[in-house]
Amino acid sequence: MLQPEMKTGSHYRVLSTIAVTRFSTLYLAFDEQTKHEVVIKTPNQLDKGHLRVLRNESLLLQRLNHSSIPKVFDSFIENDRFHLIMEYISGKSLADRLAERGEAFSEQDVRHWLMILLDILIYLHEQQSPILHRDIKPENIHIDA
Fold it and tell me: Any idea which residues carry the catalytic annotation?
């Protein structure tokens, strides 16, 4: 597990833990080369067979270019841990916004977000090797500031 102020990948300095899920841990980090905040996503468990899948997935994700999909910049293995480096999106998840709000969103907002999600799904499905997201839920939908 990464800790604040640790360096990984030679130039990523961990700032904090963003989230721990059943499958992975997300860290906020500072890229000392680009001078930008990034997210480091690290699987909680990794077997050797899964490593090849993650490497291939990383290469596929790095080729994506859509304004509503966080960019994937890099991936590497360090201390037998796989790390995926992604664009940091400021703002809150849809789940957090709903919890804070305490009531349903307006139909207009929902339609707007749905159109963006549909555009993303069309883009992913139209790739040379179609991509299926498999984990669309309010916790994974972030609305930037």
Answer: 135
